[in-house]
Amino acid sequence: MWRELLPIGRSAATGGYFRTPWTAAERECVAWFHEQAAARGLRLQGDRLGNTIAWWDAAPADPGSPAAGPAGSGVVTGSHLDSVLDGGAFDGPLGVVSAFAALDALRDRGVTPARPVGVALFLEEEGSRFGQACLGSRLATGATTWEQAAGLQDRDGVWFLDALERAGAPAGAPAGSAAGPANLLDRVGCFVELHVEQGRDLVDRDAAVGVASAIWPHGRYRFDFAGEANHAGTTRMEDRRDPMLTYATTALAANKQARLFGQRATFGRVDVHPNGTNAVPSRVTAWLDARAESADRLDALVAEVGRLGQEWAGRDGTTLEVAAESVSGEVRFDAGLAQRLAGPRDWPVIATMAGHDAGVLSAAGVPTAMLFVRNPTGVSHSPAEHAEAADCLAGVAALADVLEQLVAPEAADGA
C-alpha cells in the first residue's frame, strides 16, 4: 500500500508532496482509498463533501438484526490523504494505510467484531487550499456550516463550491442543511486516529508509540498591512509608507513573544501587492499561525502581536487590520479511553501542538483517542518528514490491539 501511494503528487524537484484537495494528485489518492476498501469487501458510506467511511460490518448477534449496527456503535480509525504544500509522506497517509493494515491484522487473527469497524478518510485536513484546517471533519460534525464553506476562496480566487464542481465532487449540501454531512458520523461510537508524531517527544522517551492526551488551542489569523505604492528608486526613505516594513517588524515581534512565553507563532504565508522588485508595495497580507497551552494564553499572544504591529504601523504611516480565519479551542481526549490504551502497554501519554481530525470529532462529543508513531527527527510538514519501517509496523500492531480490544463482545456490551 505504501509503495502505491508514495509517488502520487510527489515533486521531482524537492521530494515533497503536493496533494492539494480537489486536484489530480489528491483525487488519485481518494481513488486509491476506494480501491483498497473494495479489495477488502468494505461497505462505503460517504457524505456530500466526499468524506468517506469504509465499513467492516459486524456479524449481528441476532440474525434478524442489521449488520450495520445501531447508531453510535461503530469503532472508526483513519486519517487524511491531502498534504500541505511541499509536505511529507507520513502526515495523514500513515494513519490511513495503518488503518487498512490493522483491519487485515484483525482478520488474520480471526477476530469477529461485535461492533462495526470503519476506516475513515477526511478531506482538506491541512487547509492547504481553502485556509480552513480540518474542513472535511468540521463539515461532517457541523462545526463549520456549508454556508460558511461556500464563502471560502483559494489563493487563485476559486470558490469552494466551484472547486468541488470542477473536480466532479458533490456540490455541497442544500442551503440551511446540516443533516446531510452529519449523517456520516451517526454510527461512530469512538474514533482512534494513528498519526506520525510531529515533534521529538517519543524520541526523547525512547518509545515507538505514544498516546495523545490533548491538543493545544491554535488558530490562523490574517494580518492586512496597507500603505502607499511608490517608486523604489525615487522615493526617499523618510517619505515612504511601506507596509513591508511593518510586516517585518510584526513578524519579529511575534517570534519574540512566542519565545518569551514558550508558545508558538509563525508567519508562514505572505501575499504582496503589486509584488514588483522596483516598487514599494501598497499592501502586504500575512497569515499568522499561533498556538498556546491554553485559550487565554493564545488570546494574549495574538493580542500582543497585534498591538505591537499597530504600534509599528503608527510609526511607519501604514495601517494594520487583524482578522481570525480559523480558531480551534483546546481538546482533551477521552481520558478513560487513553488510559485503556496506554495503561496495559506502558505507552507514554503526551500532548500535541498540532491539529487533527480527531480533535474536531472529540470537540463534537465523539469519544476519541490518538496514537503517535515515533518520528526520528521530529521534522514535519516538510519533505524531510520520516518514520522508520519498524516503528510504523509497531504502530500497526498497536492500532490492531486497540481495535481488537474495542470490538470485543464485552466492549460492545459496555459501550
Automatic annotation (TrEMBL):
Free-text comment on the cofactor: Binds 2 Zn(2+) ions per subunit.
Where is Zn(2+) 1 annotated to bind? H80, D91, H195
Which annotated residues bind allantoate? Answer: R220, N278, R291
What keywords sit in the KW lines?
Answer: Hydrolase, Metal-binding, Zinc
Q: What does the entry list as the binding residues for Zn(2+) 2?
A: D91, E126, H381
One Pfam family, short name please? Answer: Peptidase_M20
Q: Name one GO molecular function term.
A: metal ion binding
TM segment ranges:
none
> Which cofactor is essential here?
Zn(2+)
- Which Gene3D superfamilies would you find in this protein's record? 3.30.70.360, Zn peptidases (3.40.630.10)
Record NCBIfam families: hydantase, PRK09290.1-4
**What family is it from?**
Belongs to the peptidase M20 family.
Q: What is this protein called?
A: Allantoate amidohydrolase
According to its UniProt entry, this protein's organism is Nocardioides mesophilus
